[in-house]
Amino acid sequence: MREEGDRILIDGIKLYAVKGNEQVCFLSKLVKWRKTVNRAEKREFVTWLNGIFQESGSVVVAHYSGLTVAQISDLRSKIDEAGGAVKIAKNTLAKIALQGTQSESMVDLFTGQTLIAYSKDPIVAPKVAVDFAKTNDKLVILGGSMGAVSLSVDAVKSLASLPSLNELRAKLVGMISTPATRVVQVIKAPAGQVARVIGAYAQKGEAA
Predict the structure, then answer these.
(1) What is the pLDDT of residues 136-150, one digit of tens each?
(2) Within a domain: 120
(3) Measured between alpha carbons, how far is 16 from 25 in angstroms, rounded to an integer?
């Protein structure tokens, strides 16, 4: 905000304010402008949150009352690294955003100071939230959803015990790469060794 003569510029919008009754007029315009901006911001946020509820593999709802700013930042960092995210939202806006989504059944979880942890991988959000709650008892898991499936606290903990998609991929790659490594070793072996391997398989075939 800066003054220019008898005018005041606020975020690039010129609102005239001089003296007396005109000052009241300025304040009235300012309040109306702020309310308009707030409504637009809320609509935009609800639309964005609605997309999160519809597109996430899983969503976990938890109370965070008592957590410090540093602890919440730590939670954000951990879930960001795992491929998810954390968002603190007003309950009224969250309930509106849930309308018409498959996750609408968890609307009753939004009471008190709540946050959501969400991720595309349905295991990531539960795993990070549950692991974090083990050492930070102020994070109280309330439940969540996985698409149209409502998740109780126990269901969230059960999901958290499963390997994530990335962990499953790593195991799968390990299973595939081990035989491949052996094949490469055989191919690179001296000709005599390869011949002995082939001979051994041939003898097995004859015995069968």
Answers:
(1) 999 999 999 998 889
(2) yes
(3) 8
